[in-house]
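Re: that chain you flagged

S.,

Sorry for the slow reply, it's been a week of failed gels. I finally had a moment to sit down with the sequence you sent. For the record, here it is as I used it:
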Amino acid sequence: MLQDVDLLVTPAAPVAAWRIDMETVVLGGLAYPVRGPGAGMNARCPSPSNATGLPAMSIPCGFTRASLPIGLQLIGRPFDEARLFQVAHGYEAVSPGLQRRPTLVEAG
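Prediction finished late last night. Pasting the structure tokens below so you have them in one place:
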């Protein structure tokens, strides 16, 4: 596929970031642990590039309504890391989330 396109754009994770105090995240009606054994659900999106050795990077691309970050993954051709950095830099320069930070909430 990468013979016909310069790079692939995919979600960085199957769900937006979850709160740090959460123990599980629900996906498709099933609860998955976010840490430790069984937390591999988090790695669904980066697993193909990890398994194939293709260069990939994740960049921020927005926020949920609850102000939690959403990631975008760029996957490039073999040994074409420079293009990933160029595309990421260009996207971040015009991103709607530019200079925006998640809202911090004190633990209570």
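What I noticed first: The helical segments are 47-52, 81-94.

Talk soon,
D.
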